[in-house]
């Protein structure tokens, strides 16, 4: 990662696409269209029955899944290469009935409900021993990869641990073997002591712009208490996480004028025991710059906004 100070930019200096949702002619995720999606696997409701209106949050299998539950892995080698069938699960979490809402505009309780739904689905899916990792992410806005406007997140259960996740796990393990401490716990302690990159903090979480931020205004939500698996989070902390995530996104929306972004939950592989060396966290990456030839060719990211400057801007935004 390279902090390109000669290209330094404040929030108002970025040329970006704002996310401005429009009323749809037809949306399969809106209330009344429940039969246009596969049958729900989870719903929080105030009224009605399964696959009927009356829900406040709904989880359905993807109509166009990346992986399918049916079948066997059938691992085999082909010379130098390994292959297996695309077995897994792909689910869509409909965060609200309001097509024009966002996580920043929703009440904090509804954002907390999203985080409860993520926990509930991980706890259910990890019972399938074929699944090694459950990736949870949100693409907000077309530049961030969203193909439907209705507020939603996605969950994909995988039969392998993704390469980038494994690299993060291995790096955290090496640090722990050398220092006998979790690198994320050390990071939280250092950031709280210096306060230079802290955006906000509660009894349960620290929101910070990481020291080696790859993207301008990249923001992490890190638990203060060591836990490797998100699904182990207690109810009180999940309620607080809903508040923290909502406030963080409000700050980003206000300072960057409703930017597109990606949110990714980093958590330990679901079949692993609790890990002393790994610490789950959430990464939020606004789409303010493009990844181009230099980044793909070198593996370095050019970030024109120092994380200290980004954190200061976000700290000063009242929500």
Q: State Rg.
A: 20 Å
Number of strands: 14
Percent helix range = 25-40%
Mean pLDDT: 91
Question: What's the structural blueprint in terms of helices and strands?
Answer:
Layout: E1 2-3, E2 42-45, E3 55-61, E4 76-78, E5 81-83, E6 89-94, H1 108-125, E7 133-140, E8 152-158, H2 163-179, H3 183-194, E9 198-201, E10 205-208, E11 219-223, H4 235-256, E12 261-266, E13 281-286, H5 293-298, E14 302-303, H6 307-316
Parallel strand pairs: 1-14
Antiparallel strand pairs: 2-3, 3-6, 4-5, 6-8, 7-8, 7-12, 9-10, 10-11, 11-13, 12-13
What's the gist of this structure?
The protein has helices at residues 108-125, 163-179, 183-194, 235-256, 293-298, 307-316; strands at 2-3, 42-45, 55-61, 76-78, 81-83, 89-94, 133-140, 152-158, 198-201, 205-208, 219-223, 261-266, 281-286, 302-303.
Textual characterization of the structure:
The protein has 319 residues and is α+β, with helices and mostly antiparallel strands. It has a single domain, classed as HIT family, subunit A (2-Layer Sandwich), CATH 3.30.428. The chain has six helices and 14 strands. It has helices at residues 108-125, 163-179, 183-194, 235-256, 293-298, 307-316; strands spanning 2-3, 42-45, 55-61, 76-78, 81-83, 89-94, 133-140, 152-158, 198-201, 205-208, 219-223, 261-266, 281-286, 302-303. Helix 1 crosses helix 4. The model has no long low-confidence stretch (mean pLDDT 91).
């Amino acid at each position: 990662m390279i902090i390109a100070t000669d290209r330094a930019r404040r929030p108002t200096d970025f040329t970006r696409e704002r996310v401005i949702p429009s009323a749809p002619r037809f949306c399969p995720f809106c209330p009344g269209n429940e039969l246009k999606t596969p049958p729900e696997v989870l719903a929080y409701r105030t009224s009605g029955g399964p696959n009927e209106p009356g829900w406040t949050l709904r989880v359905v299998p993807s109509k166009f899944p990346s992986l399918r539950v049916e079948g066997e892995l059938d691992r085999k080698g082909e010379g130098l290469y390994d292959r297996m069938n695309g077995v897994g699960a792909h689910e869509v979490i409909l965060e609200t009935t309001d097509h024009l809402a966002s996580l920043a505009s929703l009440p904090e309780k509804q954002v907390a409900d999203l985080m409860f739904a993520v926990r509930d689905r991980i706890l259910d899916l990890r019972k399938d021993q074929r699944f090694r990792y459950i990736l949870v992410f949100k693409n907000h806005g077309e530049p961030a990869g969203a193909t439907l406007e209705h507020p939603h997140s996605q969950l994909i259960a995988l039969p392998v641990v993704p390469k980038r996740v494994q690299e993060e796990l291995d790096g955290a393990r090496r640090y722990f073997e050398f220092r006998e401490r979790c690198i994320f716990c050390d990071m939280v302690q250092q950031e709280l002591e210096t306060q230079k990159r802290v955006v906000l903090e509660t009894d349960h979480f620290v929101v910070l712009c990481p020291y080696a931020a790859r993207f301008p205004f990249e923001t992490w939500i890190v638990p203060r208490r060591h836990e490797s698996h998100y699904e182990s989070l207690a109810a009180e902390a999940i309620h607080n996480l809903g508040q923290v995530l909502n406030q963080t996104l409000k700050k980003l929306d206000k300072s960057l004028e409703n930017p597109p972004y990606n949110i990714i939950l980093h958590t330990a592989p679901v079949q692993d025991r609790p890990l002393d060396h790994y610490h789950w966290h959430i990464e939020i990456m606004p789409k303010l710059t493009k990844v181009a030839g230099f980044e793909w060719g070198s593996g370095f990211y050019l970030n024109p906004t120092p994380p200290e400057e980004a954190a200061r801007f976000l700290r000063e935004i009242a929500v």
